[in-house]
Amino acid sequence: MKFSIIVPVYNRIDEVHELLASLEAQSVKNFEVILVEDGSTEPCGAEAEAAAARGLDVKYFFKANEGRSIARNYGMERADGDYLVFFDSDCVIPPDYFKNLEKELARKPVDCFGGPDAAHESFSDTQKAINYSMTSFLTTGGIRGGKIQLDKFVPRTFNMGFSRGVYEGVGGFREMFSEDIDMSTRIRNAGFSIGLIQNPVWHKRRVDFRKFFRQVYVFGKSRVTLKLLYPGSLKAVHLLPAVFVLGVVALILLGIFVSPWFLLPLGVYFLAVFAGALIATRRLKIAAMSVPAAIIQLGGYGIGFIQDYTTKILLGRGRNLDEEIIMRKGK
């Protein structure tokens, strides 16, 4: 079994260096690496050449900037593997990842797989706080890569792969936000099997809260686009961040104009986040930073969702869906 690792890159030299180093350290090297530089102004070709000189099977391509989905499709067109595997450029891969992956696929074959992500000990405190927020049940993060209900599991491109048969049957990624959710939905709708493999990668995520807010804000907006594409895809859990935003606003107003006691639920919730992070990380600073991280995650997602739900669904305005999604590359 051979794997083709496909990684889109845009101005991420340092991250690519660490990613390639982790792939060089794999205990089983039954893979090729395809780096697709998507019009970067700071290309990582030298990093790819150095890794190739050290024996890593890596192919490097530079193309005009068109977006990460088009870059992934470009890589898939040039891949030789039986399975196409996708990592983000800010991932670091544990040394036994492919050894474990091959073992699990041999034990229980699936057409498409995904797995969880985690924080490495070397990551910054901010990254660890964001990681806790993105994976904690208290922030809806528990619905991500570690989900147990496999019929609802949605692989994400920080740790995802599918067979060549899936690619031939479904086509490439659409250039859109939450393109991995769209791809997973299309794979499931086409009748292919999807499985969760508990084989995590170390994922750096965003390095500061400003970039983190922008990321989750876009996630919230893209959930509305996914509802337009797949009307039955919107679940109660996707509404929780919007409920959080509206609830926080209501409680603050009630606390100011009616009674300070209305602020108590917020205090209890933030204390629960702090305590959960302290237990999970055993670091006081990370636990304290996890509170604003949780606020940003739920608030950013909720604001983006409310904005686009109001504009595109309640008011029927915004870009035409055919222009926004269907006309983009992919099937």
Percent strand: 5-15%
N-to-C CA distance:
27 Å
Q: Low-confidence parts lasting 5 or more residues at pLDDT below 50?
A: 143-151, 326-331
What is the element string, with H for helices and E for strands? EHEHEHEEHEEHEHHEEHHHHH
What is the count of helical runs? 12
What would you report as the Rg, rounded to the nearest angstrom?
Answer: 21 Å
* Shape designation: globular
Largest sheet: 7 strands, mixed
Read across the widest sheet, the strand sequence of neighbours is: 3-2-1-4-8-6-9
Total strands: the figure is 10
Quickly give the structural class: alpha/beta
Measured as a percent range, the helix fraction is 40-55%
Average of the residue pLDDT scores: 91
Report on this structure.
- The chain is α/β, with parallel strands linked by helices and 331 residues long.
- 51% of the residues lie in helices and 13% in strands.
- α2 (45-53) links the parallel β2 and β3.
Topology:
Blueprint: E1 3-9, H1 13-24, E2 31-38, H2 45-53, E3 58-63, H3 68-77, E4 83-86, E5 91-92, H4 97-107, E6 112-114, E7 117-118, H5 125-135, E8 160-163, H6 164-170, H7 179-189, E9 194-196, E10 201-203, H8 209-229, H9 236-257, H10 264-281, H11 284-314, H12 321-326
Parallel strand pairs: 1-2, 1-4, 2-3, 6-9, 7-10
Antiparallel strand pairs: 4-8, 5-10, 6-8
Helix pairs in contact: 5-11, 8-11, 9-11, 10-11
